[in-house]
Amino acid sequence: MNMTSMQLSELELARQDFPGIPDAQLVIQLAQRTLDELDMQPPIRHEIIASMRDIVEIEESDIPWAGCLVPGPNGLVMTLRAGDCWGKKRFTAFHEVKHTYLPGFGIVMEYRCDPATPPQVTQIRNPGLEALCDIGAAELLFPRTSFLADLVGNARTMQLVADLATRYDASLEATARHVVALHPEPTMLIALEPTCKPSAPHAEPTLRVQWVQATGQWPFVPKYKSVPDDSPFCRALEGELVEETTTLGTLINTANGRVRVSAGLYPYTDQRGEQHMRVLALITPANQPRTSRGR
């Protein structure tokens, strides 16, 4: 190997070997290669993957980022935010591992931010590289062959998400997002919380949309859109595990057909120690097969 190739990252080498292939696909291939080399089965241990990538220490600290990777005298040191839940720490750990495949990882500190991180500490990050690291992290956390096999013949419900989160030792949100991303049929994931619109911060909080992830053709769902008190989402907020065929009603601005809603209350605590009463809802076409999950 010549000096030029020694200085190139694994992503840069992959670009040379497979010209024209998008970086996102190359990152997925590199993650799969790592899993194949280790012959690991879910749940994938991030400590082993990190050690393979010359990360000599994983520590936790009260940092403003979800995680960071710092070059040290004896190797790379990974720091994870102490206040995050275990599943989120695992995703962040895999994110930091993926930095070792990309250009520049051994020169400067690399860190993963999230929407809760103050803007003043996120402005210098490279959004393109961060997105690639998130793609790679998902591939390591949820090995594609196993995950796709777990989706076959199973209805898209929050119970399926909970089962898969346990199987892959992942957070519920990350698992739900990956179900949406990889399922071949149209699927929408909606997160709602009791809150106020930014334009009326002192009003009475109501259950409102926080974010949406969707594949396939779905009507636009506005952020901060409120839902009526008799909606299935409000019943989920009260603790009911909702599984029903209905319409999205006032949640969207155009008429739509009937859909299947699977929703439940899944509270979480943010890095400041504040608890959020969050509803997660999987929305699918009403004609989806109602096959039960079985292993």
Description:
This protein is α+β, with helices and mostly antiparallel strands and 295 residues long. The chain is 34% helix and 22% strand. It is built from 10 helices and 11 strands. The protein has a 5-stranded antiparallel beta sheet. Strands 1-3-2-4 form a 4-stranded mixed beta sheet. A two-stranded antiparallel ribbon has the order 9-10. A hairpin with a 2-residue loop joins strand 2 (67-72) and strand 3 (75-81). Helix 3 runs parallel beside helix 6 (127-141). The longest helix is centred in the first third of the chain and has 16 residues, at 23-38. The protein is globular, with a radius of gyration of 21 Å. The N and C termini lie far apart (47 Å). The relative contact order is 0.11.
H-E string: HHHHEEEHEHHHHEEHEEEEE
Helix content: 25-40%
The CA-CA distance between the termini, in Å, is: 47 Å
Largest sheet: 5 strands, antiparallel
Q: What gross morphology would you assign?
A: globular
Side-by-side strand order of the widest sheet: 6-5-11-8-7
Mean pLDDT rating: 87
Number of strands: 11
Q: What's the alpha carbon Rg, rounded to whole Å?
A: 21 Å
Secondary structural class: alpha+beta
Question: Helix tally?
Answer: 10
Poorly predicted runs: 1-5, 115-124
Question: Beta fraction of the residues?
Answer: 15-25%
Briefly characterize the structure.
By secondary structure, the protein is of the alpha+beta class. Helices cover 34% and strands 22% of the residues.
